[in-house]
Amino acid sequence: MTTEHEKLLNGEDYDYRDPELQEMLGSARSTVRELNKTLDISTRQKLMKRLFARVGENTIINGPISVLYGKHMTIGSQVFINDGCRFQDSNLIELGDRVIVAPDVKFYCGQHDLDATKRYDQRDGQPRLITTTAPISVGSDTWIGGNVTIIGGVKIDNNVIIGAGAVVTKDIPDNSIAVGVPAKVVKKLPEIKE
Prior knowledge:
alpha/beta; 7-stranded mixed β-sheet; globular
């Protein structure tokens, strides 16, 4: 039988009230609370390793952030995450190496049906919000500008700049600058030479 956690990661309708999911949410809340209140760099590094599935070397979180599960996130090396960022990681979120995430960026893996009659149902005699999820992937050497929103199912490739305030609803190819609502590629960047 498929667990609610497996359904969540498979992008299927899942029950967020499931005890395993609630335990994961509680653990993440507790760890994020500790992370956000300490300034000690070594303590912050230990908390990041506890919170995330993987976190690379020399990664910095600069100020308070919000994370839903944590264990669904992998973060590369030399990543800089600024304050006020929200990671709604109800599916996998992957950040490559040398990613810069400006303040107030939002990563939203969850989504609800466009048909309002399909957003709620009953399970075990209780009303239940129906949610599905999709992963988000951000490649290496990418800079995400302030107040950007990234929607589940999106892949942002390597060497990309997302302009401030953009809403990313579709994949963005390598070596691009994308801006706007919805985000569109407006310029190509030179390839990074190794």
